[in-house]
């Protein structure tokens, strides 16, 4: 039986390499689209400028892999990964237009499922000039999105673009609002800095392991009938060794709307919806990693 083909953009990046490996291990034929080759070439890579619709459409064409095969889906993770790495307009233009082009090409070629990387930054807390308190905790997908930076704004626009493509074509698009993505080599440094509870306040001490992200991407591609969905993706626990109630009392004393009991080290970025809709569970936890 022919392997199902999946397109991954940004597979040469931090999370992307784990997504490539995961889909290869799960028996998919994977094609990576990126501006550079990955450090571990586990699959074919095509060097593509995702800001050029023609290049995107050519690279994901059913003929791209040497035999005619329509990809079962696209996992779009290529982006400028945070605010202020580039001038504001460069970040916004790159992240918005690359996402639009991926969705437009998918629509033109009859690809019915796309996963895109949104961000917790869309809530506006991470890169605000002055710290703003969440309206309530844990933050779920209904929390207002109030970014003032071009990165967070690009993610809000991308979610709206995904919804527009669903309305026009019926395409299934799942947008993951990702917490701080960690890879295995990330954990030691964070644990060594546990005493500085202030340092991860702006991400509300949330995190998500890249391997759990990869599993969520597979589940989203293999799930049918979702429409345009937006899902937080975070570990069940926080990236601090302190009880969450202590973190909130110390660092978020003005947040009065606490919607669930803050038991143990519960995350302040709710993953309840992702669990319910995808059947996803986070397997990797910061206190358990070497």
Q: How would you describe the overall organization of this protein?
A:
- The protein has 290 residues and is an alpha/beta fold.
- The protein has one domain (5-129, 140-185, 207-238, 269-278): Rossmann fold (3-Layer(aba) Sandwich), CATH 3.40.50.
- It is 32% helix and 15% strand.
- The chain contains eight helices and nine strands.
- It has helices spanning 16-25, 53-59, 88-109, 150-169, 187-192, 210-222, 244-251, 272-278; strands at 5-9, 29-34, 44-47, 73-76, 113-119, 172-178, 181-182, 208-209, 228-233.
- Strands 3-2-1-4-5-6-9 form a seven-stranded parallel sheet, sandwiched between helices. A two-stranded parallel ribbon has the order 7-8.
- Residues 6-233 form the NAD-dependent epimerase/dehydratase domain.
- InterPro entries: Epimerase_deHydtase (IPR001509), NAD(P)-bd_dom_sf (IPR036291).
- Pfam families: Epimerase (PF01370).
- This is Nucleoside-diphosphate-sugar epimerase.
């Amino acid at each position: 039986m022919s392997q199902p083909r999946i397109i991954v953009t940004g597979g040469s990046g931090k999370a992307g390499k784990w997504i490539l490996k995961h889909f290869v291990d799960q028996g998919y034929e994977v094609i990576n689209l990126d501006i550079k080759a990955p450090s571990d070439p586990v699959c074919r890579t095509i060097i593509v400028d995702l800001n050029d619709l023609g290049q995107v459409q050519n690279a994901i064409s059913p003929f791209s892999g040497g035999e005619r095969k329509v990809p079962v889906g696209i996992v779009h993770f290529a982006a400028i990964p945070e605010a202020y790495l580039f001038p504001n307009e460069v970040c916004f233009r790159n992240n918005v237009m690359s996402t639009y082009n991926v969705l437009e090409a998918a629509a033109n070629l009859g690809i019915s499922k796309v996963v895109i990387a949104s961000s917790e930054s869309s809530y506006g807390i991470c890169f605000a000039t002055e710290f703003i308190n969440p309206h309530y905790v844990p933050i779920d997908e209904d929390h207002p999105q109030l970014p003032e930076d071009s990165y967070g704004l690009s993610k809000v626009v991308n979610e709206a673009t995904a919804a527009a493509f669903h309305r026009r074509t019926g395409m299934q698009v799942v947008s993951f609002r990702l917490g701080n993505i960690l890879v295995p080599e990330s954990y030691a440094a964070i644990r060594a800095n546990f005493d500085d509870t202030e340092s991860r306040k702006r991400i509300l001490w949330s995190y998500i392991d890249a391997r759990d992200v990869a599993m969520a991407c597979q589940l989203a591609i293999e799930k049918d009938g979702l429409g345009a969905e937006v899902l937080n993706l975070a570990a069940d626990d926080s990236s601090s060794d302190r009880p969450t109630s202590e973190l909130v009392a110390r660092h978020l004393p003005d947040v009065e709307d606490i919607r669930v009991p803050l038991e143990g080290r519960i995350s302040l970025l709710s993953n309840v919806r992702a669990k319910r809709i995808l059947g996803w569970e986070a397997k990797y936890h910061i206190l358990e990693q070497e």
